[in-house]
Structures are given as C-alpha cells and as structure tokens.
C-alpha cells in the first residue's frame, strides 16, 4: 500500500494532526500546494471548515490529483463543525474519488475557544485512529 499525507491549515492546528499521522504512516506530511508525485492507495487529507466549507486550495488539490488518489481518509480540526467528510466528498464525488466512511476530527483552537487544542490527548487519539486504519487494511 502507498500512502500520502496532505493538509491545509491557516492556524497550524491541522498541521499538528498531519505531523502525527505522518509519524505512523510513515511519510512526510505536506501542504496541499505540493502535488502527489505518484499514485497512492490512501490519501490522509487534513483540513478544516472556513465559512462552512473547506478552503479552495483543498478542492483544487483533489481535482488536480484525482488520477493519483485511490481513497481519501479525512481528518481535521474545527471550532464548531464535527466532520470534514461532507465538503470533501462533495468535491471528490464530482471527480470520481472515493472518500472513506472513517474519519478523525477534534476541536481546534479558534481565538479563545478550545484553547490549546489539538492537545496531547488529541494527538494520541489520531495516532490510534491511523494505526487502526492501517491494521484494518493490511
């Protein structure tokens, strides 16, 4: 199996999760501005909500790399929303990319809300999530 980790972040919250995922996979976590250089079976894609949608950079990445993505597994942070799957699926479905049912989400600090999140417990949880995904696949 080939894996990749890509993320988009404005605050640094989702990068913390991406780095934790990359340690388990193990591959380098890269920003969505870096295209995939080869086909991957699983793309761990991290993002957050901005005005009730994912950033245009995430959408562009999915569309431009559609032929190199087997399946997307979403992870992310947000102050209010609890899932990245719906907005990611909306884009992925239009270009024929599968999005896994499994996903990881935790709170992210936004101003004074959810201070110091993601925290050490969140990073442990995402590590366990990725380990389970990988063991289920193999």
Map the helices and strands.
Elements: E1 3-7, H1 13-24, E2 29-31, E3 40-47, H2 56-64, E4 69-78, H3 85-94, E5 98-107, H4 120-137
Parallel strand pairs: 1-2, 1-3, 3-4, 4-5
Keywords, separated by commas or semicolons:
5-stranded parallel beta sheet; 4 helices; alpha/beta; 5 strands; 138 residues
Strand content: 25-35%
What is the tally of beta strands? 5
Q: What's the Cα radius of gyration? A: 14 Å
Low-confidence stretches: none
Ends distance: 8 Å
Annotation field: number of helices: 4
User: Strands of the largest sheet, in order across it?
Assistant: 2-1-3-4-5
Give the overall shape. globular
User: How much helicity do the residues have?
Assistant: 25-40%
**Average predicted local confidence, pLDDT:** 87
Largest pleated sheet: 5 strands, parallel
SS content category: alpha/beta
Order of helices and strands: EHEEHEHEH
Q: How is this structure best described in words?
A:
- The protein has helices spanning 13-24, 56-64, 85-94, 120-137; strands at residues 3-7, 29-31, 40-47, 69-78, 98-107.
- By secondary structure, it is α/β, with parallel strands linked by helices.
- It has a five-stranded parallel sheet with strand order 2-1-3-4-5, with helices on both faces.
- Strand 1, helix 1 and strand 2 form a beta-alpha-beta unit.
- The longest helix has 18 residues, at 120-137.
- The radius of gyration is 14 Å and the shape is globular.
